[in-house]
Amino acid sequence: MPRFERKQNIFRNKDALGESYQPERIEERDEEIEAYMDALQPIIDGWEPNNVFLYGNTGVGKTAVTDYLLDVLQEDVTEYDDVDLSVLGVNCKTLNSSYQVAVELVNTLRPAGAEISTTGYPQQTVFKKLYSELEALGGTVVIVLDEIDSIGDRDELLYELPRARSNGYLESTKVGLIGISNDFKFREQLDPRVQDTLCERELQFPPYEASELTNILESRAEVAITENGCDGGVLNLCAALAARDSGSARQALDLLRLAGEVAENNDDDEIQEHHVEQARSKLEQERVEEGMRELTTHGRLALLAVVSKAAKESTPCRTRELYQEYEALCESSGTDSLAQRSVHNHLSDLRMLGILSAKENRSGSRGNYYSYELDVPFSSAVDAMADVLYLDEEIETIREIARMNGVV
Ligand SMILES: Nc1ncnc2c1ncn2[C@@H]1O[C@H](COP(=O)(O)OP(=O)(O)OP(=O)(O)O)[C@@H](O)[C@H]1O
């Protein structure tokens, strides 16, 4: 019977490369930290907080810097008896209206058992409940709304909360909002009056360059990886790959962690560059598989049509032929088919997602046309579709044909 055996050649503390780890030091963000501290200064001075809007791509340290600075602020504020600071944090990802965010805030402030229902109240009633909880808390309250763009255009709370004091809803409590977003369009879409208040102080976090990512990785590797667990060029390679793609520290850290796991699984004592390469293609495949799972039904059926043609070794294949395959799959799954034009749009989307590639062909007088083929491994595409489409028989036939043709 196989037994578990502890492996600790590579990692000293693998959790330090994970999402929930809060770094002791923030690297390469001195300027942003200075501007951020400047925006938070009125809190220490005992005045009303500024509202702050923070934006930048995913993984560029918006949350890490915010958590770090608010911890420092909470510690430093204890020096001053006349400032009583509370920090509330809500991730808005699953809350897509002001109403839901307000309910979440009320329930964060209420003791267990006294929460309000998430539906059934007029919006103003929920806002009033929020004001009365905030008033009961007193002092200065900083509310951090991460992924604030999920609120969409139902942004009344972002208009009302910063004005609650001037409108007489709050007397003793001073409230400051910190909104965090990686959607650049969100700011532009906001009502100009909301923009004026929420974006009182705006901070932009640019993507990291390779040398900055190397420093972030070096300081994290000190905690996470054993002394001889990592070959010299590995951190530079992870940093360079992440910088070229997204400039995200999360991507660089994920790459290093996965490369370490690959090395560990091979029973190697050191992470080397070839482990990073393997980790990169694994992450790339995961990303594509995730993209495939998030497709709409017709996107999936259009993709399965290409998969089916690939099994028959008939790709690249033009839209017209793919459309026939797609119609047959729609019929098998009891789904009404879309017009060829719409299927063409789905194929273009799949191309944008990096799941398909397309070649443009010239066809004399009738203009150009595209032919499509898979840009991901056949087995990843068929596995992902088997998980999300209820077409077991058809998918088994496709696999069978692929096996016969030596595609898999
Ligand atoms: N300057 C930095 N120094 C140390 N670690 C960092 C730095 N920037 C980012 N990180 C680390 O990178 C990871 C991603 O950072 P973070 O979650 O702050 O990104 P984000 O900009 O908030 O991304 P998202 O918009 O996706 O939430 C975290 O593990 C964080 O600790």
UniProtKB/TrEMBL annotation:
Q: Which domain of life is it from?
A: Archaea
Q: Which UniProt keywords apply?
A: ATP-binding, Cell cycle, Cell division, DNA replication, Nucleotide-binding
SUPFAM superfamilies this protein is in?
P-loop containing nucleoside triphosphate hydrolases, Winged helix' DNA-binding domain
Keyword Cell division on entry: yes
Question: One GO biological process from the UniProt record?
Answer: cell division
Record Pfam families: AAA_22, Cdc6_lid, WHD_Cdc6
Q: Which CDD domains match?
A: Cdc6_C
Q: Which GO terms describe its molecular function?
A: ATP binding; ATP hydrolysis activity
Transmembrane residue ranges: none
Q: Where is the AAA+ ATPase domain?
A: 48-203
Q: Which InterPro entries does the UniProt record give?
A: AAA+_ATPase, AAA_22, Cdc6_C, Cdc6_lid, ORC1/CDC6, Orc1/Cdc6_arc, P-loop_NTPase, WH-like_DNA-bd_sf
Q: Which residues bind ATP?
A: 60-64, 208, 220
Q: Which residues form the Cdc6 C-terminal domain?
A: 303-385
User: HAMAP family annotated for this entry?
Assistant: ORC1_type_DNA_replic_protein
NCBIfam families from the UniProt entry: orc1/cdc6 family replication initiation protein
Q: Which family does it belong to?
A: Belongs to the CDC6/cdc18 family.
| Role | Involved in regulation of DNA replication.
Q: What PANTHER family does its record include? A: CELL DIVISION CONTROL PROTEIN 6-RELATED (PTHR10763), ORC1-TYPE DNA REPLICATION PROTEIN (PTHR10763:SF22)
Q: State the name under which the record lists this protein.
A: ORC1-type DNA replication protein
